[in-house]
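Researcher: Structure prediction, please.
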Amino acid sequence: MDLHTIALGVHILSILVAIGGILWADHSAWHWFRSKKETLKHSHLRRVHAVVGTALGLLIGSGIILFWPMKDQLLTNPLFLLKMLFVLLLVINSVAIDRLMHRAASLPFRSLTPAQKIPLFISGGVSALCWLGAIVLGLTIF
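Model: Predicted structure follows.
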């Protein structure tokens, strides 16, 4: 088995793990948002964040291996560049999520002020847009 095949397998498995982690996180967030859970366990939040972050790191690492043989072609492809922008925004957003998730562990959603809720909604929107965008563009390009 060659490096490209291994990297492709890691890439695909990492996407599946990331999707699972995202669904797990969104399910928990939905319960918190709907007040079905007053707060979320900090250990649960850290675990989910670690799973999705690790999957994102593996996607970037395996993506570099997949990218390298086709770099000249891909660097001139606007769809690929847009996909890379989505990936960059996912990395930045993961830092924001790391800083915001303590709210879900310490306060009921209904007790948050609008100023505390807005960054949560923005981060959620950025996450959804960028994960979907990166996946769709990846399928479109390749």
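Model: The chain is about 80% helix and 0% strand.
Researcher: Thanks, that helps.
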